[in-house]
Amino acid sequence: MECWRDGVLERWNNTKKGQYSSSPILQYSKKNSGFTLLEILIAISIFAVVLTTIYTSYTGTFRVVDGTESQADIYRMARIAMERILEDLESIYIPKRGENTKSGEDTFQPFQFVGEDREIKGRPADTLRFISRAHINLSGQEQDHGTAEISYYVRENDEGDNFVLYRSDRPIFEETFPLEEETGGLVLCERLISVNFTYYEENGEVREGWDSASDALKDKIPKMVSISLEFVNSSNPEAPLRFMTSVALPIEQG
Predict the structure, then answer these.
(1) Hey, where are the domains in the chain?
(2) Nearest-5° angle of CA 80, CA 61, CA 237?
(3) pLDDT value at position 99?
(4) What is the DSSP string of the chain?
(5) CA spacing 20 to 30 A to 50: which of 67, 182, 208, 218?
(6) Which residues are bridge partners to 139 per DSSP?
(7) How far apart are CA 232 and CA 118, in angstroms?
(8) What are phi and psi of 222, to 5 degrees?
């Protein structure tokens, strides 16, 4: 009886298996076990959208970082340039009248202050020359040269798309003066769009240029000088980075 029951159970199990194997759902699953072309195309499209979003965010972050670093470099250059110009002007040297005379005869007396209003490709590129006590000794020797001719001038960079500001610092010796102007300078800052010096007289009159050797400004220096530097803005070329400052010059002579 137990074998009979087992036989019945066995036949019952086989019958159930046959019922499941012939089920329409299982037959449909076996025939559609892979992906259709439409499903693959949809998956590829979703992947492309996600990848494009990630790439855009990634490159955008790097552009922001590069722009921030570029502006940080410009702010650093502007700060150094302004501090250097201000220190040179605050140390301006004005010889006393008759200081360079000997035995009743006039001897050599260098110019005092010359600022020229210049342009390069229609953009301000002013120059400035004067005598100052702010000499920077780069020779490594301890010799004090006293006064020096300080000169600021502008040149185009190698690509010709922006300016470079140079600073020349040359000790004055009576037998070698006058020195060649606008040569032998060191780079003070780069990536400039414009360099502009503005001069103010004691009565408040504004001048774009100054020459203390001229009849109108004989032996005079400005009451105040304003400096304006404009740098290239890589993130917005239409809005250059502008830095401005002013310095009142000492009126004492000698």
Answers:
(1) 67-96+111-248
(2) 50
(3) 46
(4) -HHHHHHHHHHHHHHHHHHHHT-HHHHHHHHT-S--HHHHHHHHHHHHHHHHHHHHHHHHHHHHHHHHHHHHHHHHHHHHHHHHHHHHHHTB--PPTTTTEETTEE------EEEE--EETTEEB-EEEEEES-----SS------SEEEEEEEEE-TTSSSEEEEEEEEE--TTTPSPPTT-S-EEEEEEEEEEEEEEE-TT--EES-EETTSSTTTT---SEEEEEEEE--TT-TTS-EEEEEEEEPP----
(5) 67
(6) none
(7) 19
(8) -65, 155
With vertex at residue 77, the alpha carbon angle to CA 82 and CA 193, rounded to the nearest 5 degrees, is 85
Task: Provide the token pair at 64.
Answer: 């922001």
The identity of residue 159, as a single letter, is: E
CB 197 within 8 A of CB 226: yes
Q: Which long-range contacts (CB under 8 A, 24 or more apart) does 64-69 make?
A: 66/234, 67/234, 67/235
Q: What is the number of other CB atoms lying within 10 angstroms of the CB of residue 120?
A: 14
CB pairs under 8 A, 24+ apart, for 72-76?
Answer: 74/191, 74/231, 74/232, 74/241, 75/241
Q: Is the distance from CB of 181 to CB of 158 less than 8 angstroms?
A: no
pLDDT mean across residues, the chain? 78
Contact between 112 and 95 (Cβ < 8 Å): yes
Beta bridge partners of residue 165, listed in sequence order: 154, 189
Distance in angstroms (rounded) separating the CA atoms of residues 224 and 1:
124
Quick check: pTM over 0.70? no
- Banded pLDDT at 67 (limits 50, 70, 90): low
Query: CA 152 to CA 187: how far, in whole Å?
Result: 10
